[in-house]
């Protein structure tokens, strides 16, 4: 019933790393050889027809340091298996995935499988101090989960400190065997990961900022599959960066992932149209656009018909920011490269990325997204609401005598800046350990004010490790309301353990009397990460059908660090099928 595929070369890489600490140079050479091996093998495995219905897939993630040069400067970074971006995890819907994570670095590590539902398996979700204690240096932990009812692109990333800046990769969930895509099958599929790069050590960047109470330095560039691209100041030639190789007349599917820490991005391909077919591992009604908007934590599959002649075409990833907040304004580039094009001589067709503050481009993209809502892939929008919640999301200012201005910038949900507990909340819940968290998270703002106006006089937040408790199967409507405190800002909010339906969106303050009239309860987009518009609100609905402790936070890492996070605690239902599984034996201790 279960055929097992082992990834022997991946294992061998790990062993090389472990013993290789003595001779750096030899290790580096060996690594290069091994990686090309891994790549070849992964390719073979992916093309290999999968003959059984549900299988177990084994991966080994060795978390290791590696020197990496970008923008003419070299620094050591934390990686999985020495790769940046990290390895792609391939599986089919219904598969069981086992990933052994071995921590060879000096930092505590956890890995989150962003968007994987983790039905009843919350122990393997990954956010440090929420579902698990971190994997300490020299330790390991096997993540074990099943991909139930999901197919498409997701991502994995470190979920502790700022390690996800380089510790991230794609999750590709193919449909079940013999189940086609609900769109014409592409000739080829390519993973395109957008990222952000700092020349300095990112842990130092955030630590200094936290000490000073000030916002951290912005990044030095954006990247496409790890590279700033041919137009970067340090590029050695117009051949630098990632190349998407295509053949004229064929259609390609790009699995685009925003793995940047702090920035929402626009993505464009010069001279080509993109047809969106899936976001966050949910099929959409196909629509065609020349620019996509993607927030950190979101994934978007597009079909790209290579319908131009020979030549090279510029691919761009550029930031979107429609509030007065500093961002890294560098555009990452790559090239789409037609076969039969003589590389060096071929002219490059360029494109201009949208302006930084192109709100209309962003809004028109968001408004075009609809669930496919077909017979086979219905949109099961909850129509009745058991828990109607309104959470304000934004920043605040708290006193800090040791900080530069005597105060520090913080962030909050309903005026609570979430404080990470010293031990994992899920364990505290399961073993009834008191004193770790309280279940009194406010379902509504503790005091009302004109949220998107000039704000209250007192900008101070409360600290707390508070969760909102839900009975099994409760239906939830959650209004995420941006505040204008200091400045309104777009917040990409991510909910662990669930997909939700984005039923409504608007500018200004949510009005409980009139705003719901415009809700889409028929085919709203279903996803796991949603942008709350700057100075506006977003309404989401979900069913609490997954027992456990589930993190909700802004996927701008700086805001998570500042406290824009909370958790839902969903109680067990009746019987084992509605209950959290037993904790794994190798669950790390704090
Ligand atoms: Cu992708 Cu809690 O994160």
Question: Describe it for me?
Answer:
By secondary structure, this protein is mostly beta strands. Helix 1 runs antiparallel to helix 2. Mean pLDDT is 92; it is low at 1-28. A hairpin with a 7-residue loop joins strand 22 (387-399) and strand 23. The protein is 12% helix and 36% strand. It is globular, with a radius of gyration of 23 Å. It has three domains: 27-180, Cupredoxins -  blue copper proteins (Immunoglobulin-like, Sandwich); 183-371, Sandwich (Immunoglobulin-like), CATH 2.60.40.420; 387-578, Sandwich (Immunoglobulin-like), CATH 2.60.40.420. It has helices spanning 8-19, 24-47, 202-212, 359-368, 425-430, 557-562; strands spanning 4-5, 56-70, 73-80, 89-92, 96-103, 111-114, 140-146, 152-158, 168-174, 188-197, 221-224, 243-246, 251-258, 264-269, 274-279, 282-289, 291-294, 299-305, 312-320, 332-338, 348-349, 387-399, 407-413, 416-418, 462-464, 467-470, 475-482, 491-495, 500-507, 526-527, 529-532, 536-543, 548-554, 565-570. It has a six-stranded mixed beta sheet with strand order 11-10-13-18-15-16, with no helix packed on it. Strands 12, 14, 17, 19, 20 and 21 form a six-stranded mixed beta sheet that branches. It has six helices and 34 strands.
